[in-house]
Amino acid sequence: MLDRKVLDKTRTLLHTLTSALLARKISANHVTIAGFVVGMCALPALLLDLPLLALVFIILNRLLDGLDGTLARMTTPTDSGGFLDIVLDFLFYSSVPLGFALANPEQNALAAAVLIYAFIGTGCSFLAFAVIAAKREMSSTDYPNKSFYYLGGLTEATETIIVFALMCIWPEWFSVFAYGFAALCAITTVLRIRFGMESFTE
C-alpha cells in the first residue's frame, strides 16, 4: 500500500548511491546477495537479545534491496536477478519472526508461526498471480519497472518493515504486533485471491 510512495520519495537518493556502485563495477546481484547476508544478521542479533541491533540490519537490508533494483534498471535487468531478489526477500522476511520465536519460544513461538503462515498466504498469492500474469503478458501500471507483475495490497514491503521496526523497539509486544499483522496479511491474501479470480476468468 505504501511501497509506491516510498519509491517515489527515495528515487533521487537511490540513483545517487547507485551511480557510486556503477563506478565501482558492482552488479545488482552482488548487492542482492550482500543485502540478504546483512538482513540475515538480524536473526543472531535477536537470539542475543539485541533487537535494536537487529533493526539496524533490517533497515540496511531494505536499503540494499532498493539499490539492487535501481542498479538493475540502470544497467540490464535480468530474469535471474529478479528471481534471486524475490527468493531472498521472502527468506529474509520469514527469518525475523523466526528470530523472535527462537529468542523466546514460550512467549513468541505461536505468534511467530501464525505470522509466518500468513506470509505464506501473501507470498503464494503474490507469486501465483505474477506467474499467470506473465503467461497472459499482463503488466502492472502501478509498478511498471518491476521484473514481474507486482501485485500490491495492504501488506507490502514497507508495511512489513514498519511492523518489524515496532517489534524490535518494543519486543515485549511482539505477539500483539505479529497477530495484528497476520490479520492484515490474511485480508491481503483474500483480496488478492478475489482479484486473481476476477482477472483470470475466461
UniProtKB/TrEMBL annotation:
<dbReference type="GO" id="GO:0016020">
    <property type="term" value="C:membrane"/>
</dbReference>
<dbReference type="InterPro" id="IPR000462">
    <property type="entry name" value="CDP-OH_P_trans"/>
</dbReference>
<dbReference type="GO" id="GO:0016780">
    <property type="term" value="F:phosphotransferase activity, for other substituted phosphate groups"/>
</dbReference>
<keyword id="KW-0808">Transferase</keyword>
<feature type="transmembrane region" description="Helical">
    <location>
        <begin position="81"/>
        <end position="103"/>
    </location>
</feature>
<dbReference type="Pfam" id="PF01066">
    <property type="entry name" value="CDP-OH_P_transf"/>
</dbReference>
<keyword id="KW-0472">Membrane</keyword>
<keyword id="KW-1133">Transmembrane helix</keyword>
<feature type="transmembrane region" description="Helical">
    <location>
        <begin position="147"/>
        <end position="167"/>
    </location>
</feature>
<feature type="transmembrane region" description="Helical">
    <location>
        <begin position="109"/>
        <end position="135"/>
    </location>
</feature>
<keyword id="KW-0812">Transmembrane</keyword>
<comment type="similarity">
    <text>Belongs to the CDP-alcohol phosphatidyltransferase class-I family.</text>
</comment>
<dbReference type="InterPro" id="IPR043130">
    <property type="entry name" value="CDP-OH_PTrfase_TM_dom"/>
</dbReference>
<dbReference type="GO" id="GO:0008654">
    <property type="term" value="P:phospholipid biosynthetic process"/>
</dbReference>
<feature type="transmembrane region" description="Helical">
    <location>
        <begin position="173"/>
        <end position="193"/>
    </location>
</feature>
<protein>
    <recommendedName>
        <fullName>CDP-alcohol phosphatidyltransferase family protein</fullName>
    </recommendedName>
</protein>
<feature type="transmembrane region" description="Helical">
    <location>
        <begin position="38"/>
        <end position="60"/>
    </location>
</feature>
<dbReference type="InterPro" id="IPR048254">
    <property type="entry name" value="CDP_ALCOHOL_P_TRANSF_CS"/>
</dbReference>
